[in-house]
Every structure is written in structure tokens, then in C-alpha cells.
Here is the input.
Amino acid sequence: MAEAQFAPPVLDDIRLARKMLIGGEWVEAISGKTFPVYDPADGQVIADVPAGEAADVDRAVAAARAALAPGGPWRSMTPQVRGQLIWKLADLVERNAERLSVLDSIDSGKPINEMIYFDIPFSVDVLRYYAGWPTKITGDTIPISYPARSGGRFHAYTLKEPVGVVGAIVPWNLPLLMAIKKLAPALATGCAVVLKPAEQTPISIALLAQLTIEAGIPAGVVNYVTGLGESAGAAIVDHPGVDKVTFTGSVGTGKAIVRSAAQDLKRVSLELGGKSPNIVFDDADLDAVVAGAAAGAFATQGESCIAGSRLYVQRAVFDEVVQRLADHAASLKLGRGLDTATQMGPLISAEHRDKVLGYVEIGVAEGAKVVTGGRALAGEGFFAEPTVLVNARPDSRIMHEEIFGPVVCAVPFDTEAEVLALANNTRFGLGAAVWTKDISRAHRMAAAIESGQVWVNCYQAADSALPFGGTKESGWGRETCRETLEEYLETKTVVVAL
Here is the structure.
């Protein structure tokens, strides 16, 4: 479906991404260069968007720093008004839910039902959650002991101030939601933002940028810059005018960002990969298990950092769970994300589809067996069948490397101690789940699993107030939640002689 084939209202929204928002103005890249964005459902070009480079990042950072200038509209705005603007942005996202859902579905391949029933409501909730925080960000008054020894009298207190300009680099799997998870706390704390979407999925974030203007957020507070990671992304990380980088993506890129940010000791928060264990004991509700395991493995085409890609099932129910999960996978309707009957969309690109299916081939070569799936769909688009594997060795690559596609490896186990050792045998620590009716065992496992979050008898339950993030190589810091605010704030100590 080439650009001209879209209906006029959708086409107008897509065309918004032909320019970048810098300092409140829609502009082209200084070089005039563009790059194509593809529809993963048919491989055709959706639009050509600006190929921003270092010079464009310079403009965006300058605009962000100007917005933070003392006496300017953003810096002098009261916390209450700042919160009201974030709430207004939430209202606009909710009001434009259909437009944003269509754009994200076209751009990323996600089924539009996932957008309507999860991504958009969660995005709105994140904005409203952080809209309540500006009036509650406070320092402390601190009684100090030194004056008693010196004979002087002092009044000491702390101030919470915005860290400054935030470079927010967004992934392609959940474009709109991930952008908002970074934008909302930055706005709540009074920071300014240079927001770079993934080059594969910039379309919905262009509309989000436009909505920030409509919400009344001052020019330069939110800047939207498109471009490739090695040019625009690297320029954001390297820029001396950027005070913090928040990134969601691959471990390799995350490590490169840390190395670059170390040159001027920028703040960095990272939400990286995962290889989440999904652990099923034989007393679990198997109907709930199969539904949860399928959602954990195949939602968002399995292109999810918290995908439950390692399924450990106690031996007594292993065959039943595997067969029921395989039957469920084989029944899923694959198709264009805009089709409301679609249950799983295409992968983001031909290259990524081939990488995912290459992992299936590697697994089979290492001794695994395909129960269902494992192939590309014939015809146009970047579709891969939902896949269930068994017989994978504990040391095999498919049990340790993030596949980032609709592939789940099922492994039997006998004892709690055995599965705990298997679950923790990974360099990642983002998500995990435990299915059991034994409440004591559930708490023991939750405490012992090395992971940023553990779900019990559910998978991927989320809320704006819950910390989201990982341990080990799954990243630094947390998103959503109160604790995230500290990553966007500096603490200043003031001591006054009386």
C-alpha cells in the first residue's frame, strides 16, 4: 500500500512526518536528505522523511536550551500549569486515539486492536499519572549538626531542579507508547526534550509532536528529529548540550551509548533486552497459562523486550501445555495490522524477519524441534509464523540470545530448585512469570528470580505507577512510577547563614 493509496485523512497525518518539529516550527533537514519508511505489511514505501544529521540536532538542542532559559515561558511556568498542560496532552491523545492507532499500526505492523485496547489507553494513563506529579516534586529542609559545634546558625534545604535537555531515543516496536513513557516524566520535571523515533517508525510520533503544540506546551520544549541511529541518534548522545539520554533498544546500542555518554558524564537510563522465563508449575490453571504464554510470546509479533520466550513447564503437564500452546499459535490469524480480524501482524522488516527465522534454523541445528511454525509466509510483507520449539539444550543460542520475534522455546523441569537455576542462567533480567496455586512457592520464586519484575499467574500486567525496568544487561533505571522522576531531576543543596 503505497502512500497514494491511503485515504486522505490518514495521508495528511503521514505527510506531517515529511518535516521535523524544531523550536515550534516544522522544518526539513538542513541537508535536504530524506529516507524511506516502509509498510511492513507489503514492503512498500509509506513516506520519505527527513534524514536529520548533526546540524539538525544542533538546532534542536539550541531550541531546547532556549526553552529552558531563565525567565522563559517553560522555566517560569508554575508546577500546577505544567501539570495542566500534560493533562491536556493526554486528552488530545485520547481524542485522537483512532488517528494514532492507525499510524502506529501502519508503521510498525501492530494489530490495531492492540493499539486501541492497550497502547493508547496506557499512553493516556502514563500522561495523566505524570500530570499529577509537578506539584508534588519538593525538596527538604534539613536540620544540620555542624552549627552546634561551630556556634553558628544555619538554615539548610534542598531544591529539585530539571536535569536539563533530555535526548529521548525511541524503539520501533511500540513507537507511540515508548515515546510517551519518556516524554511524560521529562515534562513533569520541567525538562526540555529532543525526541528521536526509530527510523522504521517515525509516523505516529510526528502527530504526537503536533499534539504537544496544540496542548500549549511552549515552542522548543519538545523537538522531534528524524534520522538514522548512526547520524541523528549518535549526534544526540554526543552533543554537549544534552544533559541526559534515555534509550530503549538493543544491548549493543545501549553499551555504545554508555561509552559515548561517559565522555562528558551525561545521565543515562536504558531499557534494553530480555530473555524472560515463564515458569509453569503442575498445579497451575492451564487455561490461564496457555492464554498468558501465548500473549507473552506472540503479542506485538513477539517484538517485545519482555516476551516470555523461555517457557519452563513442570514435566507432569509439559506435553499438554506445549500442545495447547502450539494449537493456539497455529490458529492465530496473521495479516495487515489495520484489519481488525488480525491477531498478529508482520515483523518490522525483511531483514529482521530473516534474522528471527535464522534463529529457528540455528535452534534446529543445535538439536531443537519445531512443534509449529518456523517459516515465512508466502506473498508480500514481512510475516513469520508464530513458532513453538522443544528440545532446546540449556546452553544453546536460542536459550540465551534475544530473538525478538514470535518464537518460544518450551523446556520441561522437575523441581523448584532446578527451574530457578535455569531461569537465572541468563545475562538478562527484565521480566519473568510464575504460574502456581501455591502462594508460598509463588513468593519464594518471586524473591529468588533475578528480574526487574515478576508476574504471578498473569503476564505483562502493567500500570503507570509500577516501576518498569531490568537488572543485569536489561538496563539501568526504571520507567513509569515515582522513582523515574529522580532520573530527570538534580538535587541542589542550599545552606544559609542566619
Summary: The chain has a mean pLDDT of 96. The chain has two domains: 3-272+476-497, 277-463. The two ends are 72 Å apart (CA to CA). Residues 109 and 167 are 26 Å apart (CA to CA).
